[in-house]
């Protein structure tokens, strides 16, 4: 059994809990190693909040598959009830575990918005991870229950963003707000015809176009931001559960980067980059 002091990074979202385990922390202050870390090589898993026993299943996965008992648990959450269930399960299963719930006060990244405490911690951690991996400015598109399109300027400051309904929220609204329109399974990503030739295709085409067109327009607007620096256009980083569904239809150049929130949690062990201190 691995008795190292591992770090368990947990991202509690609105519909699922994502987690990753770093068995041996990277060297403090080594931002180059941070950029080169292969997140895909870390043990990681997602658990749906719809499953009643998800906290127990999560803990059993840590014990039996990852084989970690001694760990620091660092939790980011936008779902208060779910995080309380998780904390209770961790305390029961790992009585000696150290558990931190991440807040904006943990992040060394300046937050240049009207009311910083209202910004979701998932947005901040995703932005923090992105700016640690790419030279700013950076635009972070997180396609989950909601789609957020956030901007980090060339100084490493979180400068705000936009929020719009995600794919499932939009199609759920159509299915529940009308008498005949069907629900949509976004796990299937078939090629779409333009114009669409059936109702399901028409809903997919309409919703995808509304989301991706908004993303492209926001990218254009952000690239005119006064603090865009000398690097030219911002790097666009796409993440989230629906990233695969929308990536092919976002016209602006972008990279897909999975697990940004968990990576942002791991990055909290790094000292702030110099530009963030300006």
UniProtKB/TrEMBL annotation:
Gene3D superfamilies: 3.30.420.40. One of its GO terms (cellular component) is cytoplasm. Its EC number is 2.7.1.33. Pathway: Cofactor biosynthesis; coenzyme A biosynthesis; CoA from (R)-pantothenate: step 1/5. K(+) binds at residue 142. One of its GO terms (molecular function) is ATP binding. Its main location: cytoplasm. Catalyzes the phosphorylation of pantothenate (Pan), the first step in CoA biosynthesis. This is Type III pantothenate kinase.
């Amino acid at each position: 059994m691995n008795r190292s002091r591992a770090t368990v990074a947990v991202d509690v979202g609105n519909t699922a809990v994502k987690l990753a385990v770093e068995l041996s922390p990277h060297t403090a202050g080594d931002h180059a190693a941070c950029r080169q870390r292969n997140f895909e090589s870390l043990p990681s898993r997602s658990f749906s909040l719809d499953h009643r026993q998800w906290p127990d299943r999560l803990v059993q996965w840590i014990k039996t598959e990852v084989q970690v008992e001694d760990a620091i648990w660092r939790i980011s959450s936008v779902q208060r009830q779910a995080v309380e269930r998780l904390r209770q399960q961790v305390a029961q299963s790992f009585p000696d575990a150290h558990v931190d719930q991440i807040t904006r006060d943990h992040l060394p990244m300046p937050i240049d918005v009207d009311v910083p405490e209202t910004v979701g911690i998932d947005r901040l951690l995703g932005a923090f991870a992105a700016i640690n991996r790419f030279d700013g400015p950076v635009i972070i598109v997180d396609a989950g229950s909601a789609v957020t399109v956030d901007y980090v300027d060339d100084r490493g400051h979180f400068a705000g963003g936009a929020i719009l309904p995600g794919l499932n929220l939009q199609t759920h609204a159509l299915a529940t707000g009308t008498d005949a329109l069907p629900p949509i399974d976004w796990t299937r990503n078939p090629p779409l015809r333009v114009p669409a030739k059936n109702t399901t295709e028409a809903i997919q085409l309409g919703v995808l176009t509304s989301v991706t067109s908004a993303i492209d327009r926001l990218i254009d607007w952000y690239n005119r931001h006064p603090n865009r620096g000398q690097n030219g256009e911002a790097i666009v980083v796409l993440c989230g559960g629906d990233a695969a569904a929308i990536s092919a239809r976002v016209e602006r150049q972008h990279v897909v980067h999975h697990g940004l929130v968990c990576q942002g949690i791991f990055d909290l062990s790094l000292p702030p980059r110099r530009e963030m201190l300006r």
